[in-house]
Specification:
Largest sheet: 7 strands, parallel
Radius of gyration: 16 Å
Distance between the termini: 28 Å
Number of strands: 7
Structural class: alpha/beta
Number of helices: 6
Shape: globular
Strand order of the largest sheet: 3-2-1-4-5-6-7
Strand content: 15-25%
Order of helices and strands: EHEEHEHEHEHHE
């Protein structure tokens, strides 16, 4: 399979590329150090990526930012970061990529544990995650040409505990390699409309 891996330089992206790269051609997409440049907050940038790469069998997104702040400090402008990136950015990868996915291909997006297991300062990220999950479930019933769509909801990563650990007290971190298996299930399996939880 020919697969676009958006967010390839991130911790999850690297693990997914390593797992799927054993049997498939991986095109690494992202803002830096990759095969093709893309900024998911820009419709033109997403269109350009697809035009450069052409037809593919799968698109994986392991990217999308959101601002962490307490609800009393969260402004509409700060909340917009998660909407533009994690929510709209990932959804636009699907909407703009529809014509570039081969028959029976797949999209796999990323959500996260915060939408189901809230943490302080995580409301904006949880909102974006929940929106992506709802989009995936609803879009799956009308995807054309046998195209499938799923999302992966990881817990905090063992590899990221140094950076994010203080946000997740008492959470049992998971290795990125185990999260990568959920993406493998989505790409190589037959299910659609799923949100694979790796908790």
């Amino acid at each position: 399979m020919k697969i676009i891996m958006v967010g390839a330089s991130g911790t999850i992206g690297q693990a997914v590329a390593k797992e799927l790269g054993q049997h498939h051609e991986i095109i690494r997409a992202g803002r830096n150090g990759t095969d093709v440049m893309v900024d998911i907050t820009s419709v033109d940038s997403i269109k350009s990526m697809y035009e450069q790469v052409g037809k593919v069998d799968a698109v994986i997104s392991a990217t999308g930012g959101a601002h962490f702040a307490s609800i009393t400090e969260l402004t509409p402008e700060l909340n917009e970061i998660g909407i533009e990136s994690k929510l709209k950015g990932q959804i636009n990868l699907v909407l703009l990529g529809m014509d570039y996915i081969n028959d029976s291909g797949s999209f796999t997006l990323t959500t996260g544990i915060m939408m189901d297991d809230p943490i302080p300062q995580g409301a904006s990220a949880a909102m974006a995650n929940g929106g992506v999950k709802a989009f995936v479930k609803s879009a799956s019933i009308e995807m054309p040409r046998g195209i499938r769509i799923n999302s992966v909801s990881p817990n905090v990563l063992q590899e990221s505990l140094g950076k994010y650990g203080e946000f997740f007290p008492g959470f049992e971190a998971v290795p990125a390699s185990r999260v990568a298996l959920a993406f493998k299930k989505s790409v190589e399996g037959a299910q659609t409309g799923q949100n694979y939880e790796v908790y």
